[in-house]
Design brief:
The protein is of the alpha+beta class and 167 residues long. 54% of the residues lie in helices and 14% in strands. It contains seven helices and four strands; from the N terminus they run H-H-H-H-E-E-H-H-H-E-E. It has a four-stranded antiparallel sheet with strand order 1-2-4-3.
Length: 167
């Protein structure tokens, strides 16, 4: 299903360590939510809210570190640092004051979920839950909207992520 999710850049020890930590985070997330599902809990709602709340915390931190309040360029450069771009093999397709358009070429979370045998339907749901973190980040910026396009978890070669300025 996710044959495309092989990292191309593997020669940076620090990036590989961080990817490993993200895989570990993905294992925790996946296993906790699958346990909630087994117990008959509303695992999707629980996951979305918890990850959204985490994103809100991250968004506040990004906002504090930005050099220009309300700037999409500053947001993009603060959130998607060189290391983040390397970890997820992100290609910045567009970055200006109206839009930030990204393609992720690798997802350590998907790698984690594959390790524990998550099926394709649940993997897509876990991915959407994980992206609630980005939704939470975007919610801290009233001037920005978040849009998730195709994802690696759905079997696509890249994840499409877009932040745009509200009209």
């Amino acid at each position: 299903m996710c044959a495309f999710n092989q990292p191309k850049n593997t020669d940076d020890a620090t990036i590989n360590k961080v990817r490993g930590a993200i895989v570990h985070r993905g294992l925790w997330m996946g296993l906790i939510l699958m346990e909630a599902k087994k117990r008959g809990l509303d695992w999707e709602s629980i996951g979305h809210q918890a990850i959204f709340d985490t994103g809100c915390l991250h968004g506040d931190g990004i906002k504090e570190r930005m050099d220009t309040e309300g700037s999409m360029v500053s947001f993009g450069e603060t959130f998607f640092t060189e290391d983040v771009r390397k970890i997820f093999e992100i290609e910045v397709k567009k970055l200006d004051e109206s839009e930030l358009v990204l393609e992720y070429g690798h997802c350590p979370l998907v790698a984690a979920w594959k390790q524990i045998g998550v099926d394709s339907e649940v993997m897509a749901k876990l991915c959407d839950i994980a992206m609630s973190g980005d939704r939470g980040i975007a919610s801290r910026f009233g001037e920005f909207e978040f849009e998730l396009g195709k994802t690696i978890a759905e079997g696509h070669p890249v994840c499409e992520v877009k932040f745009s300025r509200r009209a």
